[in-house]
Queue: 4 jobs
Job 1
Amino acid sequence: MLKKLYDWTLSMASHPRALWVLAFVAFIESSVFPIPPDALMIPMIIARPSRAFLIAAVATAASVLGGLAGYAIGYGAFELVGRPVLEFYGKDAYFAEFAARYAEWGAWAVLIAGVTPFPYKVITILSGATALSLPVFILASVVARALRFFIVAALLWKFGAPIRDFIERRLGLVFVVFVVLLVGGFYAVRFL
């Protein structure tokens, strides 16, 4: 089923209303959908590099709005909807421990999940379930999602199709290393 969803998402890149499909995919990916919008963004940008930053802007805006939907699920419907989504991704067992630490580190969690391969939808739902400050959640989401989507757009705009393999296979790792270095740097400055 996941393969069919991925293939359908990829096939939408050449659809006349691809930008609307991207907005839809970015929106639902932030709360429940398992396929990241990158799968649609990459072929769209390769096909029309002049629209790279428009595509990134649409993905960012829709993703943040979808993140708000995920937040609402966690805040108002965690037991009914949120917990089954977390169970699907194998993250439900961590909720109690996570909720205890989330108030202090919530903004960092949103930033990290927003740029790394970690499922962003898990963080959006947990942010609502733990009642993370909504302005903090929105700001961290905008920064993280814009960083992720605009870096992908800029790389594809500048280098085109040859960079596609790097983005699909290694950019997630690059983002993870970046986040580890960033958090490690803040930790070192704070405690040394």
Job 2
Amino acid sequence: MPETPKPSDLIKPHVHQDDPYEAEQRGRTALADGVVEKIAGMAAREVHGIHALGSGLARTFGAMRDRVPGGRTSVSRGIKAEVGEKQTAIDIALVVEYGVVIPELAAAVRRNIITSVERLTGLEVVEVNIAVNDVHLPDEPDEEEEAVASPDRRSRVQ
């Protein structure tokens, strides 16, 4: 008479439940561009010397959008990612603080974005293109502050 199988005998011998490669073969994970853009935005903001992300116009519209009830700050403002199945490319626009060495800052931003995106998504970052659009001077008000203040000024003038 054959023996009754034990529960451990029912598990396929070639399948390891803790094997990540095996789990990877049983489905597909798709990442939206916005996921990579948010991760890159958070990583860029961690680098000292960044004043803001995005071009002047994007920051102005973003500041106005942030003031709308229910609106929230866009972490990915100024960032564009193209995401494939295994790789991603990222473009980022920056405003830097006056006095920082731009090539060193760009290298630190690039390094931090690559490390964060690859660690959190598993994607290979093939390139991070950085455009420095402006330098923020210490005595300049923020464009975002001006955009927020201008409607108040108009209401007082009338």
Job 3
Amino acid sequence: MGAAPAAPERGTRMIKTLRDAEELVRTRHVITEVPTHGPTSLVEQVMGGRPTGSWRDHAKGRLAYRLGRMLRASKDVLAVRLVEGKVAFVDPTLWPAVYRVAMEPARRRPSLQGLSAEARALLSTVERDRRVRLEKEGPWTKAREALEERLLVHFSEAQEDDGRHVAVLRSWRDWASVTLQADAARLSYEDAQARLRAACDGAPTGLGPWVF
């Protein structure tokens, strides 16, 4: 039997389609994929409340999973590990703040420490080639996940012509438009962090471990 959700919050809108999910991101500016102590999550909105057990066992677990994959591939949504190290979906109004934080040298230097040789090699390849496509599961998976978690590369998913979903890694400079980079340059590191925390309901247990 699937896990039952908690009582839905007042004003909760049931999410059934990609358009619904994208509208939720536009309205809230930041949502997480799974429940956290911060902003509302895609899982909660799909299920009508916070599940009391494993959300994957819920009757709508497959829908939540599928919409999460679709949001990752959406050009109107940025997927980044922003709250408690969990994937968050971010509206374009906050992309300059994310870019400013991701590119901050004082943040990037310590995030390079402890990377495996494979992760460093993959990062060098992404910075050189600007865009790298990888199988989602393969010999580079751990290296790719380490770079994603530390905000060292932009990560998204795409669907190939044969239906396979692949991981797409891009350098942040390749991802960001000239206008976005200019908007980010007008923000201090502290201002960018403050904007993200405010959008994440204060991030009571912190932004991601590599966001500071």
Job 4
Amino acid sequence: MARPSSFDREDALANARNLFWRKGFHATSLKDIEAALSLKPGSIYAAFGSKKDLFAEALKFYSAGVEEEFRDFMAQSRSPLSGLIGYVRSITASGATKMPSNACMVFKTALEMANEEPDLKELAARQLSNVADLFAETFDAARKAGEIAPDTDPHRAALKLQTSITGLRGMIESGLARDDVENLIDDIVSDIERLRVPTQNGV
């Protein structure tokens, strides 16, 4: 079956991403997909293949958006370290938007696929690794700029930050009180600040 002439692949992927992000892979039915994409089954298969193929593409679409958002944020920052701190601070603003979930879609996928669908589990692991690499690149840039000590391990710092952010997003999704969320963000920022090399006047 041919796709309708009004078909927009990016819009369809955004709708699929939102659906899977909210419900997960297994809980999403073909009827759910038809409604979210406004497509008949034949058109869905023609455009994306199987449900699994659509999910994989939606997960990549989500990850690409996260990476683009981070790079755009860093491009507008005064320095690598201030960019990371600003990015962490922006999480509460992101949590206030009407997104399908505050929790990371990739991490939710990794948990859901822990004991099945090894190719989707592997895909999620790669996407998580890509984000860690982005953080590591930023910590490395901060090291080269003299913002943090030269013996700082960018990979280790990146994994710690990624773990903190992932946990924070999960707590926001669970309904944690706003004041507690802000306190956790302050703690994450403090961890980043501890890496900062003091200036000559001790600031």
